[in-house]
Design goal:
There is one protein chain. The protein is an alpha+beta fold and 238 residues long. 26% of the residues lie in helices and 33% in strands. Strands 5, 6, 9, 13, 14, 15 and 16 form a seven-stranded antiparallel β-sheet that branches. It has a three-stranded antiparallel β-sheet with strand order 10-11-12, with no helix packed on it. The radius of gyration is 25 Å and the shape is elongated.
């Protein structure tokens, strides 16, 4: 296979991964706190013999997560929280600390605030948040301070990665950070709201059509290139 074939195959490989990513975005358009993912294509240049031109290939293996604010939906839940602006909730999981924008929490039997998967929500000091069992009214200030019957008992911690590029998607709405995090200055949290997915379904559907057409064009190019090579071989073999 010559250079044109290799270049087309690398392009098709990236488009196939992008198609799976777009489908995943559409499937999570209604998932609380979900962040849209996109594919970044880059050019990979390989040096060949000095008497031959270099070989350039398209690589589509870099994921980019959109951090645009999603819409806010009112739930009136005492332990539903939505972040306004930057920052993440920090969770304690079996795989280590994880970040999320999905703010649906509930007390477990031990009185600790956990998300739907049972991961502990951490306070500003990095410890699990315990809700007093005798508290009848739970309120939260804009800075994340939780109070039971008017008595403060914890402050929800909001953090952000020091290096934004160190954030990688772990699973679902969870993110892992390969580096340090720092507290968010002047955090803004709304009680009784959750942040919706920032996926725009119509935009994703349009992108899916574009990717599909690009993939079909690449397939046709491979077919024409294969036909060209066959014709050359048949002509030289006569």
């Amino acid at each position: 296979m010559d250079n044109a074939g290799y270049i087309t195959l690398t392009r098709l490989s990236g488009l196939r991964r992008e198609m799976a990513m777009v489908a995943h975005n559409i499937a999570n358009a209604g998932t609380t706190g979900f962040r849209r993912e996109g594919m970044v294509f880059s050019e990979f240049v390989v040096a060949t013999d000095r008497h031959e031109p270099s070989l350039s290939m398209a690589l589509g293996n870099t994921r980019q997560t959109s951090q645009l604010q999603g819409g806010l939906a009112q739930t009136n839940g005492s332990f539903d929280m939505a972040i306004e602006g930057e920052g993440f909730f920090q969770l304690e999981t079996p795989d280590g600390p994880r970040l999320t924008r999905a703010g649906m929490f509930t007390p477990n039997p031990a009185g600790e605030l956990v998300n739907m998967d049972g991961h502990h929500l951490l306070d500003a000091g990095g410890a699990p948040i315990f809700v007093p069992p005798d508290a009848r009214s739970i309120t939260m200030a804009r800075d994340g301070t939780l109070s039971g019957d008017g008595q403060p008992f914890a402050q929800v911690g909001l953090v952000r990665p020091v290096d934004p590029l160190s954030v990688t998607r772990a699973a679902g709405t969870l993110f892992a950070v390969d580096g340090p995090v720092e507290p968010v200055e002047a955090p803004m949290i709304l009680q009784g709201f959750v942040e919706e997915s920032n996926v725009e379904p119509l935009i994703e559907l349009a992108r899916m059509i574009e990717v599909q057409r690009a993939y079909e064009q690449g397939q046709r190019l491979l077919e024409r290139e294969d036909e060209r090579i066959r014709n050359v071989i048949q002509t030289l073999g006569r």
